[in-house]
């Protein structure tokens, strides 16, 4: 019989102990290497592009000045950096063997102001050459508040093109209810400039000289009106034909629908009827894509959806909001005999 370890000769026992230590050391090296590879490959945003719900976030990041930053430099995990890194390692190996639509173990919160200040620490500098693009009164007004930077800079990194486009969007009562605009204008003041929100046109004719004196003619001529329109009214008394204003493009009616409790359930009907009205304010369709990337509740159970989806597909446009028609054709061609 082969002698056990206790009965072994010292030389054999030593060799076995060395072999055990080498095996343990090898396993440790393999584990450390496996963890190191995972940490390295998940340290860049490109790792998250594999997740269906985050693909657009990655794509929009590529046109941002933040594109070379690791995700956790902005999106901190409230559970701490150790748990965050452990989650990344786990998600890396989970994604090798399966393709979940979003990370399973990694949790990233919204960027905190401190995360922003790690890079933008001179944002409050009095040196004009460094802060000439910063609207000082706005920042000074909120400097004492506990408001995160991303409350206003909500499109930073992932929607920077939208940040520029939204400056030309029509300001309205809806805008005034959001965090970045609330506090510097009261909702009832919107009609001072956006007078199309006021249905009483005769009252505006009397009030507009004071409004122009208050805000200056450049504010009127910057986006909405032309000087020839002013001259026509002031020299002939005839009311000019104004085009492209909020009330005349049908946006006022849609704006009123936004505050109704069932708006989320009903907004698809409006979008299918005329998506161009949505895109006056929702300049980027990314907001739609982020929401529609989630499986809608009305789809019901995946086990029964195949048999019931034909009732919803009668208006094909609803399906094509999220799906590609080629997918339908590819699947239906496999079951031609069932038609």
Structural class: mainly alpha
Tally of DSSP helical segments: 19
Strand content: under 5%
Percentage of residues assigned to helices: 40-55%
Based on DSSP secondary structure assignment, what is the total number of beta strands? 0
Task: Give the helices and strands as they follow along the chain.
Answer: HHHHHHHHHHHHHHHHHHH
Describe the global form: elongated
Q: How many domains would you count in the coordinates?
A: 2
Largest sheet: none
Describe the protein's architecture and organization.
With 339 residues, this protein is mostly helical. The protein has 19 helices and no strands. The longest helix has 33 residues, at 10-42. The mean pLDDT is 75.
Summary, kept brief:
This protein is mainly α and 339 residues long. 51% of the residues lie in helices and 0% in strands. It contains 19 helices and no strands.
Question: Any chance you could write out the topology, listing elements then pairs?
Answer:
Blueprint: H1 10-42, H2 55-61, H3 81-97, H4 113-117, H5 128-131, H6 136-142, H7 160-165, H8 173-176, H9 190-193, H10 201-215, H11 217-221, H12 227-236, H13 251-257, H14 263-273, H15 275-281, H16 286-292, H17 302-312, H18 316-320, H19 325-332
Helix pairs in contact: 1-3, 14-15
